[in-house]
Design brief:
alpha+beta, 6-stranded mixed beta sheet, two-stranded antiparallel ribbon, 5 helices, 8 strands, about 25% helix, about 30% strand, globular
Length: about 140
């Protein structure tokens, strides 16, 4: 069961929540990877592109931001589906990317360093049915 939605009035409140909840705390995945969160990733996680081809991340995505607390819970969710990521630019599987699918349509993406058992948070979003099907076509992620 996902956590409750977080409702703030301003983007600045969501940013502060992200920084205090994720950037200033230690987080681990259910299988032992320590996950690092940078302040800069807020924009990637909580903004969407007005034009998908431009990939400009110019529009604040309140629907994503309301699910801010889902990120940490998703990392700890033992029943999550884990898949290798897709490198959009190289058009190939990227096994250093770990795509976590939870709660039916919520995605958390990590860049993993298996040798160090660490990961860097990349983004999180609500996936549409086409995206979910695409994710599930990738190989399962294995450490």
């Amino acid at each position: 069961m996902p956590p409750q939605l977080v409702n703030y009035i301003t983007e600045a409140e969501y940013r502060q929540h992200y920084e205090s909840m994720y950037c200033r705390r230690v987080h681990h995945t259910f299988d032992g990877f320590r996950v690092f969160f940078s302040k800069q990733q807020f924009n990637d996680a909580f903004y969407e592109s007005a034009n998908r081809k431009a990939r400009d991340k110019s529009v604040f995505a309140r629907q994503r931001a309301e699910r801010i607390d889902w990120i940490g819970t998703a990392l700890r969710e033992v029943t999550s589906e884990l898949y290798a990521g897709w490198d959009r630019d190289k058009k190939q599987i990227n096994r250093a990317r770990r795509v976590c699918l939870v709660y039916g349509d919520y995605v958390v993406v990590l860049q993993v360093n298996q040798a160090k058992l660490t990961a860097i948070f990349i983004t999180a979003y609500i996936a549409d049915q086409h995206t979910i099907e695409s994710i599930r076509q990738n190989p399962r992620w294995v450490p």
